[in-house]
Design goal:
Blueprint lengths: L1 E6 L3 H13 L2 E7 L7 E2 L2 E5 L4 H6 L4 E4 L4 H14 L2 E2 L2 E2 L4 E2 L4 E2 L4 E2 L4 E2 L4 E2 L4 E2 L4 E2 L4 E2 L4 E2 L4 E2 L4 E2 L4 E2 L4 E2 L4 E2 L4 E2 L4 E2 L7 E4 L4 E5 L2
Parallel strand pairs: 1-2, 1-5, 2-4, 5-6, 7-10, 8-11, 9-12, 10-13, 11-14, 12-15, 13-16, 14-17, 15-18, 16-19, 17-20, 18-21, 19-22, 20-23, 22-24
Antiparallel strand pairs: 3-4, 24-25
Bound molecules: acetyl coenzyme *A.
Length: 210
């Protein structure tokens, strides 16, 4: 089995480890984290902080998966690792449904119970979290996160780095702007501009994001 490292040692790393183990495609060498208080996570050893990465590359370990929920930090680490010569791997649960007609980018994480339906596009480094739904013809741009139980109907577009909170719902054809946040449980009935936070039913803007 090909060797892989996990970047990040928080809660999201626990589920990514679980998925990679259930895929039976990769041998997880360990995880890195800049908090050096770790010893192991779900039985997977702590390797060190980011300073260890060049040595791992020299040993021929090239595959990585960034297991960090924060979209901006996940983007930064993804780019740093790709630029350094590492290769992103996707972690797709065997208990998710991903249509053969969907396009899946690099370093994508799809959790158990999620559905990615026909002709949807999921770009690089996106998280499709537990029990969420991305229906036909949706486009999820890089570094976005669809949180647990969020439901996107057909033809929804989610901009780079946007975050759709747990249980949020988006009606067909809506565009969610890049780096915007949709609050948990919100129902989005109209387009959301970039860099704002919207909440409620129907979702309304409560803040601009810097
Ligand atoms: C596996 C995992 O755990 S993945 C992680 C999943 N996480 C989530 O889904 C979290 C989603 N986060 C939220 O919904 C947050 O409440 C946010 C991001 C929308 C807002 O957070 P903050 O910016 O800290 O806003 P804050 O808590 O100060 O609330 C501001 C106002 O909006 C209201 N509000 C906040 N979130 C919501 C919401 N989801 N729905 C309705 N109203 C909301 C608050 O009640 C408050 O109203 P008030 O000013 O009248 O008192």
């Amino acid at each position: 089995m090909e060797k892989i490292i996990i970047i990040g040692g928080g809660g999201h790393a626990k589920v990514v480890i679980d998925i990679l183990q259930s895929m039976e495609t990769y041998d997880i060498v360990g995880f890195t984290d800049n908090d050096d208080q770790h010893l192991s996570l779900c039985g997977i050893p702590y390797l060190g902080n980011d300073a260890i990465l060049p040595a791992l590359l020299e040993k021929g370990i090239t595959k990585f998966c960034v297991a960090i929920g924060d979209n901006r930090l996940r983007k930064k680490l993804f780019h740093n690792l790709v630029t350094s010569g590492f290769k992103p791997a996707s972690a797709i649960s065997p208990f998710a449904y991903v249509s053969h007609h969907a396009k899946i980018g690099r370093g994508v994480v799809i959790l158990p119970g999620a559905v990615v339906n026909s002709c949807a596009t999921i770009e690089d480094n996106v998280i499709i979290n537990t029990l969420s739904g991305v229906d036909h013809d949706c486009i999820i741009y890089s570094h976005a996160h669809i949180a647990p139980g969020a439901s996107l109907t057909g033809n929804v577009t989610v901009g780079e780095g946007a975050f759709l909170g747990a249980g949020s719902k988006v009606i067909p054809g809506i565009e969610v702007g890049e780096w915007s946040i949709i609050g948990a449980g919100s129902v989005v009935l109209s387009n959301v501009p970039p860099n704002v936070t919207v909440v409620g039913v129907p979702a309304n803007k409560i803040a601009n994001r810097g």
